[in-house]
Specification:
Blueprint lengths: L14 H8 L2 H12 L17 H31 L3 H27 L5 H8 L2 H15 L3 H26 L2 H31 L3 H26 L7 H13 L6
Length: 261
């Protein structure tokens, strides 16, 4: 897939111009056009969907069900964060993220249906990893409490880091249809993670004492995130020897803000 942002470096812009640019609907349209216009359900309509062995199909359904939990958490949280946003740049970006998360949830549910599940939403409820469900609950509590920094950290750093890490690995081993679905989702996660790191990075530079509070939140939520990793690893057949490498990618992403466990 051609990256519409290849060669473009908005970080060279002045800060105010940077925020106007990368948080705009125009930037979002350019980013998503290539993999939305010709992929109505997340993949090219003429792409063949090869039959899967029953055990692989079952594991894939469980994996996609857990992806739906993560995407529904981000959808509900980002919609709530629109009201909490401290400025119009952030508000506009979060509006685009709401659309992204809704799209992700839609294509994952459709993929579950295409695998022969008559009631995808019910299947999500039956197969959801309890630790991931707990994470969703904690994230939405932070939003309901009006805690902008903690909610952005939990959603746009912790959750997005986990999803970006897992989705990128899953792409490499997935069937052709699932691979194309994940390609578009990963491209979106990169923008969401960038927003969280940029927003919190500016805030923590101005108030370094905030790191201690976010580090405590991370220590509280990390067990839920890492337990969710373990479940997905099993379902996509990841060799145990490769698990620490993926965990390292996640930890590197959350520690770029200068937070320690």
């Amino acid at each position: 897939m051609t990256d519409p942002l290849a060669g473009y470096e908005p970080h060279l812009l002045e800060e105010d111009e940077f925020l106007r640019e990368v948080h705009s609907f125009e930037f979002w349209f350019e980013a998503v056009e290539g993999y939305l216009e010709n992929r109505p359900f997340g993949f090219e309509p003429d792409l063949a969907d090869p039959p899967l062995p029953e055990v692989d199909r079952d594991h894939l359904i469980t994996t996609l069900c857990n992806y739906c939990v993560g995407e529904s958490a981000a959808l509900e949280a980002s919609s709530g964060l629109v009201r909490l946003a401290p400025n119009h740049h952030s508000r506009i970006f979060l509006a685009t993220q709401v659309a992204d998360e809704a799209r992700h949830l839609e294509v994952f549910l459709r993929r579950i249906g295409a695998l022969g599940v008559a009631d995808p939403e019910g299947e999500v409820l039956r197969r959801a990893n309890p630790r991931l469900v707990d994470f969703k609950k904690r994230l939405l509590e932070l939003v309901d409490q009006g805690d902008w920094e903690a909610a952005v950290f939990a959603q746009n750093v912790l959750l997005e880091s986990m999803e970006d890490t897992v989705f990128r690995f899953h792409e490499q081993v997935a069937d052709p249809v699932t691979r194309q679905v994940l390609e578009g989702v990963v491209a979106d996660e990169r923008r969401h993670l960038g927003f969280g790191e940029n927003d919190l990075g500016r805030r923590l530079a101005a108030d370094p004492t905030g790191r201690e509070r976010l580090a405590a939140i991370r220590a509280d939520l990390d067990p839920l995130v890492l337990a969710s990793f373990d479940g997905v690893y099993r379902d996509i057949g990841l060799d145990r020897a490769d698990q620490p490498a993926l965990g390292k990618d996640y930890l590197a992403a959350v520690e770029r803000l200068g937070l320690t466990g």
